[in-house]
Amino acid sequence: MKTIEKKTIADYEALPEGSPYQLIEGELVMSPALGFEHFRSSKKLFVRLYRLLEETKKGEVIYAPVDLYLDDENAYQPDIMVILKGSRARITGRGVYGPPDVIVEILSPSTAYYDMKVKKRVYERAGVREYWLVDPIDRSFEIYVNTEEGFKLYSSAVRSGTVRSEILNTELDLEEVFEEV
User: Fold this and answer.
1) Is residue 115 part of a domain?
2) How far apart are the C-alpha atoms of 108 and 116, rounded to whole Å?
3) Cβ distance 44 to 134 under 8 Å?
4) What is the pTM of this model?
């Protein structure tokens, strides 16, 4: 039986700049181009979080594509990262090292498995404080808070209503997130 050699951060960094890959548990996984619904939801959430953090001066919001390095076998480009003042995450010229306080992943059919299962476990293990899963097709939004027992669903809504972020002390209206122009 042939074994697949695990890849590391060194292998990931050796890829040509702009390569459409993420390093997920030692495997290089291609990330295809994003659909318009993904883009629209991501943009609206980024703008909302940017305004919130500018107003409160609590931290910084980072928009993909920026590399996030969690360990030697995991380098991602989350859709959105929030790094609050005093965070364990470090921002450098190469990307972000260590767990951001909030990670937002907008689901796409080709990446949903990784976002909902594999990356969720890695984010939990790394110490990400809140993990947001946003599905622009089903118009659903889930916020998980990292507790001593791991990620627990804290707030969710489908198609309408609001979700609440404990860490950012804010609510988000689904109609605004998924609003079509």
Assistant:
1) yes
2) 11
3) no
4) 0.87
Q: In what side-by-side order are the strands of the sheet with 102-106? A: 59-63, 80-84, 102-106, 130-135, 140-147, 150-158
Secondary structure (3-state) at 15: coil
Q: Give the CATH number, domain containing residue 71.
A: 3.90.1570.10
The total number of structural domains that make up the chain: 1
- Average pLDDT score, the chain: 89
> Which pLDDT score is estimated for 47?
95
Place of tokens 């470090």: 90
pLDDT digits (tens, 9 = 90+) for 95-115: 999 999 999 999 988 888 888
**CA pair distance 158, 138, nearest whole angstrom:** 7
Domain membership of residue 145 (yes or no) is: yes
Amino acid at 163: V
**Three-state DSSP class for residue 157:** strand
SS3 122: helix
Measure the CA dihedral 158/110/124/62, to 10°. Answer: -80
In-domain check, residue 23: no
Q: Could you list the residue range(s) of the whole structural domain that residue 80 is in?
A: 34-177
